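Handout, page 2. Input:
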Amino acid sequence: MLEDLKRMLGLSGQKDEELDQKLNWILTTTRARLKVLLGGIDPEKDLDYIITEVSIVRYNRIGSEGFQSHTVEGESVGFLNSDFDAYMDDIQAYKDQENIDVSKGGIRWI
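Output:
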């Protein structure tokens, strides 16, 4: 997943251990947050695209953490309340498909 993330960020081919550590940390924390949204169930490979895309958003927000918007030289950028907002329909569809009941601690029901 690290190489996919680097490719999407235009960083593929770069050998930078510090950058790799930072990107791996972003991937790990993004996966952990998605696990919480799934009620404690580890995200399966089907959801890797969400982890990668949210990781891109998080990488691009480095230095702008906590801002709802950011303006530089007339260019204004607004941020969603949660980096996962754009994927909540996908997450809910996955929970429905997998019969995941978050209110019961992420238990799959039949």
